[in-house]
Amino acid sequence: MEDLTDIYNELIMEHSMNSYNKRKLSCADFCEIGHNPNCGDEITLEIKMNGNVIEDMAFSGHGCAISQASTSIMIDTLKGKTIDEAKEIIKTFIEMIKRETTDEEELKKLEDAIAFKNVSNMPARVKCALLAWHTVEGILK
Amino acid sequence: MNNFKKDFPILENKEITYLDSGATTQKPIQVIEAVEEFYKKYNANPHRGAYSLSMEATEMYENTRTKIAKFINAKHREEIIFSKNATESLNLIAYSYGLDKLQKDDEIVISIMEHHSNLVPWQKVAKTTGAKLNYMYINDEYELSDEEIESKITDKTKIVGITHVSNVLGTINNVEKIIKYAHKKGAVVVVDASQSIPHMKIDVQALDADFLVFSGHKMLAPLGLGGVYGKREILNDMTPFLMGGDMIEYVHEQTTTFAPLPNKFEAGTQNVEGVIGLGAAIDYIENIGYDKIQEIEAEVVGYAKQELAKLDFLKLYITPNSKNHSSVISFNIEGVHPHDVASILDNEGVCVRSGNHCAQPLLRYIGMDSTCRASFYFYNTKEDVDKLVCALKKAYSMFEKYIVK
Fold first, then answer.
1. Does B343 touch chain A (CB under 8 A)?
2. Minimal CA–CA distance to B45: which of B37, B33, B36, B53?
3. How far is B373 from chain A (nearest CA, A)?
4. C-beta atoms of B404 and A17 within 8 A
5. How many CB atoms within 10 Å of residue B38?
6. What is the ipTM, given to two decimal places?
7. Reading across the β-sheet that carries B353-355, which strands appear in turn?
8. Would you call B390 a catalytic residue per the annotation?
9. At CA B328, angle to CA B300 and CA B363, rounded to 5?
10. How many contacts, defined by CB atoms under 8 Å, are there between A and B?
11. How far apart are CA B31 and CA B233, in angstroms?
12. B404 vs A62: CB contact, 8 Å cut-off?
């Protein structure tokens, strides 16, 4: 396998260990639990909407560095986006992790979440990276 | 360095340090070849054909039953039932004994360290019959105390389920004591020997176990084969678990009478290659001998405990009483999730398990979501331990500056 620091990079480490997005919202519109029973990762996502726009998001729970960082960076990426924009970003992220798209232009809209690109080389951890994204996908449906 | 690795093609061919034998052991060439030989020379459906090939297959299949019966010192060969795995074995007991024999307000007692396979079926039995499911909890040394055993097993207890060795903690439970005490209270005891039979001699008569289950693939045999030992008089008194082919005597349009033991509990074509492989695995284990296996494991696991204890960033979840500890070591790098540790170890070629090890209630009880687990077998060496330690140091160094103290 390649150098693991491609996966456990600075950005992912920072977000995984001490995320400013790990907090409680005072008045969330949606609250959803994402759970991965095989590994025990569990996150609770809260979303506050302002009309069609995701105004605020936060998470709590526990899991590995990949799942925690993925959740935190996802929140940074999706905050301020409309529902349609968010859906499009989520779709692209899932495609990136599943190696269904490698188009650089397409991936740019993921902003910092592009840091998870190399997780696709680590099949055992793909589900960790996707947990939060699938959870939000479920809320926005 | 011991020379057993040469018998295990996967350990010879792959650059790996395999420390997950608690999940499944690697297979020696003798087992692989026995399975291959069966398909090349003897394959036919046992118990079905009147032709000689089928008779030969039947003989091989049934001879393995006899071999296992001797191996665990069962009184009668028909006390051995083949199943798909230890989970199915425990379900057989739960469905065919538990559901039939238990009534409202009876009690089932299990330990908090049970694998889900010796826990979830009992929840089902409790729910259906109205019996109560009670737990024996561990003390600070990750062991069941005598007081705990005696306070939980009561006159109302009808079934006690106990793992011989914990798959998370490696604790060896005092099953002799539990069985003796449970019998005094009139309960039957189900022993899960999945984690013990690869490492220590099992004597069901000396233990006086009513039921004992094991898994073939954790003792060098192929995946997909397990076994149940049950006392003959109890098995005879039970209704079948699965219905269908080969477990019957007469079948009429509306009614059926069942075959005697052991066929009564073996519906449909069985995992014959698995049984043949298990026979070869038992030959292999007997050839080495449990004394030798324990001598190697004591040395390697002892060395592992000593070296891991030197890593001050590591927390170990093992009993301090080494005579009560088998070949499983659970640990965590404090502040780093076990899955991340396992991924970094994997990158170094070290295979350990991470997660809840199918023992969520136990992990919750000790206040954890998951742990890393290194589990050893006689083919492991001190060099394997050194590689584990080295990989752990690397994992810690990657995370060190980010760990929130």
1. yes
2. B53
3. 13
4. yes
5. 21
6. 0.89
7. B314-316, B328-333, B371-375, B353-355
8. no
9. 155
10. 57
11. 33
12. no
Instruction: Give the residue from B265, B19, B211, B224 showing the smallest Cα distance to B98.
Output: B211
Domains of chain B: 4-19+289-400 (3.90.1150.10), 30-286 (3.40.640.10)
The pLDDT averaged over each successive group of 10 residues in chain B (405 residues) is: 87 92 98 97 90 93 97 98 98 98 98 98 98 98 98 98 98 98 98 98 98 98 98 98 94 96 96 97 98 97 98 97 97 95 95 94 94 97 97 95 81
Does B338 sit within 8 Å of A17, measured CB to CB?
A: no
Domain map (residue ranges) of chain A:
4-140
Q: Do A65 and B355 touch (CB under 8 A)?
A: no
Edge-first strand listing for the sheet containing B107-111: B80-83, B226-230, B211-215, B188-192, B157-163, B107-111, B132-136
The fold of the A4-140 domain, in CATH, is Sufe protein. Chain: A (3.90.1010)
Which position has the token pair 């793909």? A126
User: How close B369 gets to chain A, by Cα (Å)?
Assistant: 7
pTM (predicted TM-score): 0.94
The minimal CB distance from A125 to the residues B338, B343, B360 is found for B343
Residues B396 and B346: beta-carbon distance below 8 Å: no
Q: Tell me the HSE value of B70 on the side-chain side, using a 13 A CA sphere.
A: 9
Name the token pair of B363: 């992990």
Which of A5, A14, A65 lies at the smallest CB-CB distance from B340?
A65
Contacts of residue A62 in chain B, CB cutoff 8 Å?
A: 337, 369
Residues of chain B neighbouring A16 (CB-CB closer than 8 A): 402
